[in-house]
Specification:
By secondary structure, the chain is mostly helical. It has ten helices and no strands. Helix 2 packs across helix 4, helix 7 runs antiparallel to helix 8 and helix 8 crosses helix 10. This is Mitochondrial substrate carrier family protein. Pfam families: Mito_carr. It is a multi-pass membrane protein.
Amino acid sequence: MIGDISPPVASIPVVEGNAQAMNSKTLLPPLSTVASHFGTSGLSVALATGVTHPLDVLKVRLQMQHVGQRGPLIGMTGIFLQLMKQEGPRSLYLGLTPALTRSVLYGGLRLGLYEPTKVCFDWAFESTNVLVKIASGAFAGAVATALTNPVEVVKVRLQMNPNAVPIAEVREVVSKEGIGALWKGVGPAMVRAAALTASQLATYDETKRILVKRTSLEEGFHLHLCSSVVAGVVSTLITAPIDMIKTRLMLQQNSGSVRIYRNGFHCGYKVIRKEGPLALYKGGFAIFARLGPQTMITFILCEKLRSLAGLHKM
């Protein structure tokens, strides 16, 4: 299960006076192992993102329908046909460059920090129960998002503007709205990432443990597939409303004095009041259609890459 990120350490007799020093050394894995750990995590997320990116574009377009008002919603198929007709097939890959950049950084940190955090909690509280797994995932997701939020802002802006260029978009955002605009929506984004990572990784981890214990499944592709499907469903149900609020805030312009949403809570309140409670799940199917396969691809690839790199299974 998810735990150590370092290869097994051979048992070496230690005299009592040196026991503490030896224990501190075994807690620090070699630099090559750390690089492999974060590298496999980032690469698996980037590959999964590349495959599912068109669904992310559709999700953003669905979430930006009828901002601030009620009205009939166009489904994912309708949005897809509209994009094909008006902007062409390339529109499905708007924002791909920052998406892949963010995937390597964010994915590497999000998955990479989970295990060390869980090891620290295990050391501090002598427990690896499901609450520890949830806390570890929440911490890893929040930290990863706080560091990579500017790339996410640029990605979302590019997905709504087919003529934008990444570097030019960054310059425009900073010149018109200030450098703080690159961290626009960071609050809901951190909450979403904490909820996503906690639900995704903790569910995957716990599902694997239960399936191994109560079924005939053993470590391998079928166990990873079943566990990742469950993780994808749970994480989608929990994070869809937060994702919608995050998108609205990131696309909000600050060029004038009037702002539609003051913060994440205000955004959620106004969406429910003016567009109805179900508006929080705008793009919900697109989120699942993207997050479900992305979760499966990420975990299956990560498990395989970790195996090739000589790391423990997750």
